[in-house]
Design brief:
Radius of gyration: 23 Å
Largest sheet: 9 strands, mixed
Structural class: alpha/beta
CATH class of the largest domain: Alpha Beta
CATH architecture of the largest domain: 3-Layer(aba) Sandwich
CATH superfamily of the largest domain: Glycogen Phosphorylase B
Shape: globular
Oligomer: single chain
CATH topology of the largest domain: Rossmann fold
Bound molecules: adenosine-5'-diphosphate, alpha-D-glucopyranose
Length: 499
Amino acid sequence: MKLHVLFATSEIAPWVKTGGLGDVAAALPPALRAARIDVRVLLPYYPALAAAFPEAPVVAELSGLGGRLPTARLREATTAEGTPLLLLDCPVCYDRPGNPYLSNAGKEWTDNAIRFGLLSRGAALLGSDASPLSWRPRIVHCNDWQTSLAAAYLHFHNGVRARSIITVHNLAFQGLFGRTTLAEIGLPESAWAIAGAEYYGYLSFLKSGLYYGDWITTVSPSYATEICTDADGMGLDGLLRQRSARLSGILNGIDTVQWNPATDPNIAARYDIAKISTKARNKAALQRRLGLEVRNDLPLFGVVSRLTEQKGLDLLPILAEKLMAMPAQLAVLGSGARELEEAFSAMAADYPLSISASIGFDEGLSHLIEAGADVFLMPSRFEPCGLNQMYSLRYGTPPIVRATGGLADTVVDCNPATLANGTANGFVFSTATPEALWESMLRSAVAWHQPPVWRRLQRNGMARDSSWAKPALQYADLYRRLDLLATLAATPPGQLLSA
Ligand code: ADP
Ligand code: GLC
């Protein structure tokens, strides 16, 4: 029989996406199904999902969930690709504008503990013998702090329960709430301990998952190592070191259907590895769309990013004059920290024919930048995995990255040795300083001005297999091992021999 897995998430592209988690939740489950895992995705019935699946039938009512958690209804739907969705319908929690975490005014919803406590509690309930559904998962796969608490609810469940996996997409977001939250979300007092859900006087959703979870994964092998260090552990490295025997990294894939330059409807001209020259038409289209001077004799650098400290883009504005002297162009798409939005807007105002800043979230433009830019910039201070560098590789737009997390695991620096052995696919620098970033931008411009070198870099990146097929097999293997571990641990020794 296929292994049953419940994949719990707070985002899913294309309906609800604030970053890479939405992309992962959309693309990993279909790949898991192809790997013979019976996976269903649990997420809130947000307005965007209600609009997409207005007829989704109610299949169960979840009540008596403990604390102040409201009653919710469970609806079922199936995506066009055939992924079954379990939609948690609770209007008081999820039927509101804004994004999953913030109001339109950019303020965190004040009841986030209840909203994501409910989502986690729902996941745990479905993973237990108290579930109203006949479909019973053996594994509950949680993603980030929003669903992490499911591991704690499962731990405290008296009865048969699924094993839990917590995938850390970003350790920086921990879901911290006040002491009184513990009772409100229906966790027992005994969970209030350093060996439990407490984190320096707060209730931490993420720490609860890391403590009670049966397994922890991160979205790249390098990040799994980094978060066990004082420098990158964000206060949780001690616990993560303790749990390192149950911590592993599985590199993300990308959605190779949505992100395919040969079929992408968002770009001006489609191309592939056999016809990279057509990519130039996208550069011209991007330049026209952004009001940049249409030129093919200088490199165009692209950025698509949340504008936060994590992404290291504060290193860039100070390089504006150097960039103009190079000469080069820059196209930025992003939103987030006001200072950064203002800094990029000011750069664009100073050099309107060479620098463009699009402040906001624009899926279509993000594809055109991947296709139209020559070089992609991703100087992240830390990066659990990063998807944009993989989109760039696939679009023949060699990325410049800092050597951290998933960036270090996917981008190979261009030098004579890596060019010779056919692995070079971008540019990597180490120190998070404008000087180090600039040095790699210069190196990329030198390579760009040497078409044979540039073509090799582009080809190496475009040939890389970034699909979900391999990571899905790794997750499937982990699910099976964890399930076997649970079975063996629960089997009395006498029966093991005869089993
Ligand atoms: P993170 O999840 O840390 O933001 P990732 O690289 O994993 O970083 O994923 C970011 C995703 O969000 C990518 O699909 C990227 O294209 C998208 N994205 C980020 N900012 C924007 C934006 N302003 N407009 C459109 N897409 C964006
Ligand atoms: C997070 C990380 C990013 C990762 C994404 C999907 O948002 O910041 O590096 O790619 O999750 O796993």
